[in-house]
Write a structure and sequence with these properties.
The structure holds two protein chains of two kinds.
Chain A (H helix, E strand, L loop, with lengths): L11 H6 L19 E17 L11 H7 L3 E9 L2 E7 L14 H18 L3 E7 L3 E8 L2 H13 L8 H11 L5 E6 L5 H13 L3 E8 L1 H5 L6 E5 L5 E4 L1 H25 L3 E6 L4 H16 L1
Parallel strand pairs in A: 3-4, 3-6, 6-7, 7-10
Antiparallel strand pairs in A: 1-2, 4-5, 8-9
Helix pairs in contact in A: 3-4, 5-6
Chain B lengths: L1 E3 L13 H8 L5 E5 L3 H36 L2 E4 L12 E8 L7 E2 L2 E2 H14 L6 E7 L3 E9 L2 H9 L10 H13 L6 E8 L7 H12 L10 H6 L1 E6 L7 E10 L3 E2 L4 E10 L3 E9 L2 E10 L4 E8 L5 E8 L10 E9 L4 E4 L2 H11 L8 E4 L14 E5 L6 H12 L3 E5 L17 E8 L6 E6 L21 E3 L2 E8 L3 E7 L4 E8 L2 E6 L16 H15 L6 E2 L1 E5 L12 E3 L8 E3 L5 E6 L3 E6 L7 E7 L12 H8 L3 E5 L2 H12 L1 E3 L1 H27 L5 E3 L5 E3 L1
Helix pairs in contact in B: 2-13, 3-4, 3-12
Classes of the chains: A alpha/beta, B alpha/beta.
Chain lengths: 301, 721
């Protein structure tokens, strides 16, 4: 592994922790290769799907003779096709992702690390991973590839990006939703600090196109609790606007508001059957990914 | 009633504005902190602003109250109330009692003398003090008299001293006495409540000092010994017992004028008596006694609250000093019902003529036409050094110059102490000889021969000028024309101080000049006393002129018939012909203290006792009366003051007045039934500080959320712990 690609985000121990994991889609997907994921197509797997009437040109091997004996009609047997999983990682590099409360990584760095970990898991399962990087606009769209080299290259490109100034999350997500023409697993790694209804609409757009969607809502712990002891002049990382506030006196109201904000996303995602996870940047990425994937595996049984 | 023992600290209450000022002017030290989005902060700030405002208001209120309590505590508030029972214990105090000892305190009320009522009230005040309270006593007379100068805890001793006091026949100055008592209280150590009790009859006169001081203060701050500072007026509590009659009734002889001032045997004395009246119009009988014999009695209807006058004529007085008395009927204030004075009647005026026989012949003949008349003595000028000039009313110097230096000095002293010196020039002396005599009206410049054709001159009296000290009224027999023939005249230089040309011969030629010297008079003629220089001794008006000169001079230097009490009175203004070996006795028999101020000018130190003073001359069998002393009668004008007037005049902040001892006792009970609230205020301040600490820290705990965290479980749910 190169130190410039995935090695710059995950060390060998972390990668070892992720080795036996797999990111499965909860829905059928449309891959390009044969794999272990259920495909929307009927194919040549061993798992019986259904019967249909024989048509000229069908392989005679597929005629179900038992049915012919019972009904004197020609039916062919159809089997469930199995394909590989295509995973698209959507990484938000808006201005607000550049926040760190000091002790932890910035949310953008954390998102990159999370993307590296997920990409590693996906490739290890011989699935394909693609990547979209966006800020105020779509910055990069890397196609799905089933190759560590491609992942390394994608991560190198990601490494070269710094957080942008503003954000246009909803518009870009709509754009991405339109560009992915096969059912895939879409992973959104963002702080979602945008127009909440628009973001929810964009997620719904993915679901409308039958994509499986996972939202990793990435936030700094201080963003959640406002644990700042001194009065300060706060500067908005996206707009540059400033305001003087005493965080101690407004912590309670702030936490209420932030809780409502998160709950609204969680509820909307739940209704859309989107897997929503709040990720705090003080949690180790490998631990979180492992815990998440095992939880997802358990729930999908 | 809440009063403050240390009101200066009320200024500290302005410190209550400090929390508000700090809040308004504090500079926020803020650090620019990048944050992902301000949307939640803005919304949170909007939501929390009302709560924060309320918490800040509570904190501001607590801190302001805390500072107010501390300020109030240092101002030593004392709650005066009759409620509260034993909970309101008393505080220690220093007390000064000022007793008005003016003679109006002798006023008789139904229940006794005002003076006795005030003394008993003072004793009652002391009785009400607690053990450990200190008390001092001052008596307000003409001068403040400390009875118990320093506050003491020996209450019994002080009460005894008060009961032994007697009222003084004088006026009183309460302002000076109160100021002295205040200083005495201020010199005491320890912070105690200070109270001054003024026991008076409530007449306006003793309070006049306060009134005048208030007027002075309005104009300019002066260094007055009676000055009481604003701080003293505010810090000390004053009580006044105004025990006198509310509608006093009094009549008294207040003054008498005797004319002529120089009484000779055979003359009638005319007495102009003034009678003061306080109260409604009334018929009053005024009597005159001379030497214990009633010599007149007249009725007078006085108007309400005013002064009237009436006259008596007393004739047939023998030569000598007669003790006379004006009296009005006894009333509620008997001390001023009599007014004493002396009638000094002289048989004749002893005159000394110094000069040679030929120069004094006409003068002696004019003054002593009878050979047996021993009132005129003629000596040679050289004998002046051996004669006691004080035995003579007038001294004629006729061609007496040049004089020995010692004689010149004695003549000058004689004139200054009231003697009359009449100078006639002569041929013996040259002009320079007059220069030694400093008391002459003008220094002679030389002599001038008068031509025969200009010799006849008409004498002309120069009208008295304004501010002229020495006057002369030329009274001549009817039908006479004052014309003289001059042969030679003395010419004069510039007039000396207090000198004037009294008579001229012709136009502008000084004939007679006069000068006031001390209490005496010096007259100088420009012609000799014999026929050598003029025909003046032969004229019909020579005799009247010299007689008038003697009598006028004698009248000017005569001692007044009565005096008022006072101090530092020159003896020559009070006692005629005083000698150092004279023993002057007061009416009580005590010897009067007379001091020499260093240059043989004698002063009576204190003339405090009203009555007849006598002199025992060395070798004389009986003492003779020399002075009649009366109390100044302005205390007899009884004008009660109101408490409002007293408050205005004195400027006392805490000033309570009572009309009788019972009311005073009630006021004292109400006033003293209180306690200092300083300790309570400090306890409240402590409680407030604890409450402030709790509220402030509670607010901080609420705000920081140090233990409250927003976490997410594995299912992605937000958990608030």
């Amino acid at each position: 592994m190169s130190d410039e690609g995935i090695g710059s985000y995950l060390n060998p121990a972390q990668m070892a922790k992720l080795n036996r994991l797999a990111l499965n889609s909860r829905y059928v997907v449309e891959g390009t290769l044969a794999g272990r994921h259920r495909s929307a197509q009927k194919g040549a797997s061993t798992e019986f799907a259904d019967h249909r009437s024989y048509m000229p040109g069908d392989d005679l091997k597929r005629i179900d003779w038992k049915v012919l004996g019972r009904t004197d009609k020609y039916y062919v047997r159809r089997y469930q096709d199995e394909t590989n999983l295509r995973v698209y990682l959507l990484i938000d590099r808006s201005g607000s992702m550049n926040y760190s409360s000091g002790e932890h990584k910035t949310k953008f760095t954390y998102a990159c690390t999370l993307a590296a970990a997920l990409g590693y898991v996906v490739l290890k399962a011989r699935d394909a991973v693609g990547m979209y990087i966006y800020g105020e606009k779509m910055d990069a769209a890397l196609p799905c590839k089933n190759s560590f080299n491609e992942l390394n290259n994608a991560l190198k490109i990601l490494k070269g990006y710094k957080p942008a100034k503003g954000t246009a999350g909803a518009d870009v997500m709509h754009q991405i939703a339109e560009s992915i023409n096969r059912r895939a697993l879409v992973v959104i790694i963002s702080d979602l600090l945008d127009d909440q209804p628009e973001i929810i609409k964009a997620i719904a757009h993915f679901r409308k196109n039958l994509h499986d969607v996972i939202v990793f809502h990435t936030l700094d712990p201080v963003e959640l609790s406002l644990e700042i002891k001194r009065g300060a002049e706060f500067e908005d990382l996206e707009t540059g606007e400033r305001m003087i506030a005493d965080p101690r006196s407004m912590a309670k109201e702030y936490k209420d508001l932030m809780g409502t904000f998160i709950e609204d996303y969680r509820k909307a995602c739940s209704e859309m059957k989107v897997d929503y996870r709040l990720v705090k940047t003080d949690e180790p990425v490998d631990t979180f990914v492992r815990a998440y994937l095992e939880e997802r595996k358990r729930l999908s049984r | 009633m809440l009063v403050f023992a240390n009101p200066m600290f009320l200024w500290a209450l302005t410190a209550a504005a400090i929390p508000l000022m700090l809040h308004m002017f504090q500079r926020r030290k803020t650090v620019v902190t990048p944050f992902p989005t301000l949307r939640f902060l803005k919304a949170a700030q909007k939501r929390s602003s009302s709560r924060i405002k309320f918490e800040n208001f509570i904190l501001w209120l607590l801190r302001t109250l805390l500072l107010l309590m501390i300020g109030f505590a240092f101002a030593l508030p004392v709650l005066r109330t009759t409620s509260g029972g034993s909970w309101l214990t008393r505080t220690r105090r220093d007390v000064a009692i000022v007793l008005d000892a003016s003679y109006s305190m002798n006023y008789e009320l139904d229940r006794g003398k005002v003076w006795d009522i005030c003394k008993e009230a003072a004793a009652g005040v002391i009785e009400g003090l607690l053990s450990g309270d200190r008390v001092c006593v001052y008596v307000a007379g003409d001068t403040p008299v400390p009875v118990i100068e320093k506050p003491t805890t020996e209450h019994a001793t002080v009460t005894q001293a008060i009961r032994a006091l007697t009222c003084q026949p004088s006026s009183s100055k309460l302002d000076e006495t109160v100021a002295l008592a205040l200083r005495s209280l201020e010199q005491q150590e320890g912070r105690r409540e200070r109270e001054i009790y003024i026991m008076t009859d409530g007449q306006a006169v003793p309070w006049q000092g306060f009134r005048e001081a208030a007027k002075k203060e309005e104009k300019a701050a002066g260094d007055d010994k009676a000055k009481i500072s604003r701080e003293q007026r505010d810090k000390v509590s004053f009580f006044a017992l105004l025990a006198g009659a509310q509608q006093p009734d009094n009549a008294c002889p207040s003054d008498v004028k005797v004319t002529p001032t120089l009484l000779l045997a055979g003359q009638s004395a005319r007495l102009n008596v003034r009678v003061g009246r306080t109260g409604p119009a009334k018929q009053i009988t005024v009597a005159v006694e001379v030497d214990g014999q009633e010599r007149g009695r007249r009725g007078i209807t006085t108007e309400a609250d005013t002064e009237s006058s009436l006259e008596f004529a007393i004739g047939g007085l023998e030569p000598g000093v007669h003790v006379a008395k004006i009296s009005t009927p006894q009333d509620a204030l008997p001390v001023d019902d009599e007014f004493l004075f002396l009638l000094r009647v002289r048989k004749q005026l002893p005159v000394l003529i110094a000069g040679p026989q030929e120069a004094t012949r006409y003068l002696k003949a004019a003054l002593a036409p009878g050979a047996a008349d021993d009132s005129v003595k003629q000596i040679d000028a050289a004998e002046l050094a051996t004669v006691d000039l004080r035995d003579y009313q007038a001294l004629f110097l006729c061609d007496a110059f040049p004089l020995p230096g010692q004689s010149t000095l004695r003549i000058e002293e004689y004139a200054k102490t009231g003697g009359v010196v009449i100078v006639f020039p002569g041929d013996r002396a040259d002009i320079a000889a007059y220069a030694e005599m400093k008391i002459l009206p003008a220094q002679p410049k030389g002599t001038e021969e008068v031509p025969v054709e200009q010799a006849a001159r008409q004498l002309k009296r120069i009208p008295n000028q304004k501010d002229q000290v020495v006057n002369f009224n030329l009274s001549l027999p009817p039908g006479t024309v004052p014309t003289v023939a001059l042969k030679r005249v003395l010419t004069f230089g510039e007039l000396q101080e207090n000198a004037a040309v009294l008579v001229t011969a012709g136009d502008g030629v000084p004939f007679m000049t006069g000068r006031a010297v001390g209490r005496g008079r010096v007259f100088m003629f420009s012609i000799a006393a014999n026929r050598d220089w003029s025909t003046f001794p032969l004229t019909a008006f020579f005799v009247p002129v010299v007689h008038q000169l003697i009598r006028q001079g004698a009248g000017a230097s005569v001692q007044p018939p009565h005096l008022v009490q006072g101090s530092n009175i020159p003896v020559n203004e009070a006692i005629p012909n005083y000698r150092e070996d004279d023993v002057i006795s007061a009416p009580s028999g005590a010897q009067l203290s007379i001091k020499d101020n260093g240059n043989r000018t004698f002063f009576i130190e204190n003339l405090t006792e009203p009555g007849i003073y006598t002199r025992a001359k060395a070798g004389a069998a009986q003492p003779e009366p020399v002075m009649a002393v009366n109390t100044d009668r302005f205390e007899s004008r009884l004008a009660p003051v109101t408490p409002q007037e007293l408050t205005e005049w004195t400027g006392f902040k805490k000033f309570l007045t009572a009309k009788d001892p019972e009311e005073l006792k009630r006021l004292i009970d109400e006033y003293r039934n209180g306690r200092s609230l300083a300790e309570i205020f400090l306890w409240i301040a402590l409680l407030l500080s604890l409450l402030e600490w709790w509220v402030a820290n509670r607010a901080l705990r609420t705000r920081t959320g140090a233990t409250e965290k927003l976490t997410v479980d594995l299912a992605g749910k937000v958990i608030t712990s």
